């Protein structure tokens, strides 16, 4: 008969696939406070947790996971058999590459969020920026802060908490920025990216703006914008911002609001129909951005 230690040795680690609903319930006591499961996001997955002190079972993830913590929490973590004591503080970041044998123990209540990334996304974006083909993320214990990663995760959470979840162009830009950051800072062979200071060539900028205006009523994707001018998503975002002074998703929102202003003054269709004709998910989504840009609601603007 096996003793307790032998039984543990015989047990196979859990295989966690965040594509499956409720996958994290195999690891944590409480369900997530926020999840992106039904958000429609592609290649990434997000959760926000508040958990009591606990010890996760050994597991391997099918996606790369990046976590950041809120509060001060003593913990222990095992990554492929290496153990380290952590004293996590606000913003400390851990990176668990897909396939890594992982376990974590924390002694007190803990609040954290994580984003999981499909390995194929690192490969595809890496190819766009000529990163080394053999991409290998380096496991990271939660001992250091990474403000950029923390900011991106907070922005993803804000999108989910808005209950609108329709600004896919913004989410795509966030995940592209995150992946490029991982390629530059946390890989065995780090990507070295070319620097451009002149913005988009004029003919590419003109073509991009024409594409945006022709598709304002549709779900504009970052990959489509970059592909329309034959560029990688990363370089496209950087050069567009250099040319226009704002990010692509901000430009799209501003142009949708400008089109909505014209339709509101014409007074021929309802505000709900205007929202849909201008590419907003619904009237609430429309009102939120319209007020942010103009300082008034669509209805108040119509009555001016």
* Content-based structural category: alpha+beta
Distance between the termini: 83 Å
Q: Count of DSSP E strands? A: 12
For the largest beta-sheet, the strand count, sense and barrel status come to: 6 strands, antiparallel
The shape, in one word, is globular
Low-confidence sequence ranges: 1-9
Residue share in helices? 40-55%
Give Rg in angstroms.
22 Å
Oligomer designation: single chain
Strand order of the largest sheet: 2-3-11-6-9-12
Quick check: average pLDDT?
Answer: 89
**What sequence of helices (H) and strands (E) makes up the elements?**
HEEEEEEEEEEEHEHHHHHHHHH
Proportion of β residues? 15-25%
Q: Counting H and I runs of at least 4 residues, what is the number of helices?
A: 11
Descriptive account of the structure:
There is one protein chain. The chain has 11 helices and 12 strands. By secondary structure, it is an alpha+beta fold. The strands form 3 sheets. It has a 6-stranded antiparallel sheet with strand order 2-3-11-6-9-12. A 4-stranded antiparallel sheet has the order 4-10-7-8, with no helix packed on it. Helix 2 packs across helix 4, helix 3 (147-161) runs antiparallel to helix 4 and helix 9 packs across helix 10. 34% of the residues are buried. Residues 1-9 have low confidence and may be disordered.
Primary descriptors:
6-stranded antiparallel β-sheet, 11 helices, 304 residues, 4-stranded antiparallel β-sheet, disordered N terminus, alpha+beta, 12 strands
Task: Please specify the SSE layout and strand pairing.
Blueprint: H1 4-10, E1 14-16, E2 34-35, E3 44-51, E4 54-55, E5 59-61, E6 64-70, E7 73-79, E8 82-88, E9 92-96, E10 102-106, E11 110-117, H2 119-128, E12 140-145, H3 147-161, H4 168-185, H5 202-214, H6 222-228, H7 233-244, H8 248-266, H9 271-277, H10 283-294, H11 298-302
Parallel strand pairs: 1-5
Antiparallel strand pairs: 2-3, 3-11, 4-10, 6-9, 6-11, 7-8, 7-10, 9-12
Helix pairs in contact: 2-4, 3-4, 9-10
């Amino acid at each position: 008969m096996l003793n307790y230690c032998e039984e543990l040795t015989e047990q196979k680690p859990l295989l966690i696939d965040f594509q499956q609903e409720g996958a994290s319930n195999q690891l944590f006591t409480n369900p997530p406070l926020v999840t992106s499961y039904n958000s429609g996001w592609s290649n990434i997955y997000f959760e926000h947790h508040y958990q009591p002190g606990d010890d996760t079972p050994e597991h391997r993830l099918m996606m790369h996971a990046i976590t950041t913590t809120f509060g001060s929490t003593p913990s222990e973590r095992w990554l492929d058999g290496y153990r380290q004591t952590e004293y996590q503080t606000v913003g400390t970041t851990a990176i668990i590459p897909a396939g890594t044998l992982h376990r974590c123990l924390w002694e007190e209540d803990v609040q954290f969020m994580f984003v999981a990334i499909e390995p194929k996304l690192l490969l595809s974006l890496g190819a766009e920026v000529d990163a080394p083909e053999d991409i290998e993320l380096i496991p990271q214990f939660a001992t250091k802060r990474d403000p950029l990663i923390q900011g991106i995760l907070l922005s993803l959470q804000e999108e989910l908490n808005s209950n609108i979840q329709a600004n896919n162009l913004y989410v795509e830009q966030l995940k592209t920025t995150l992946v490029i950051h991982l390629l530059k800072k946390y890989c065995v062979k780090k990507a070295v990216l070319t620097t451009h200071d002149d913005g988009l060539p004029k003919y590419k900028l003109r073509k991009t703006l024409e594409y945006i205006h022709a598709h304002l009523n549709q779900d504009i994707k970052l990959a489509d914008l970059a592909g329309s001018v034959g560029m990688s998503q990363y370089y496209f975002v950087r050069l567009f911002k250099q040319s226009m002074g704002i990010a692509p998703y901000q430009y799209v929102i501003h142009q949708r609001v400008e089109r909505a202003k014209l339709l509101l003054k014409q007074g021929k269709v309802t505000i709900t129909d205007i929202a849909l004709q201008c590419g907003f998910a619904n009237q609430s989504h429309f009102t939120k951005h319209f007020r942010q840009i103009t300082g008034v609601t669509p209805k108040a603007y119509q009555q001016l």
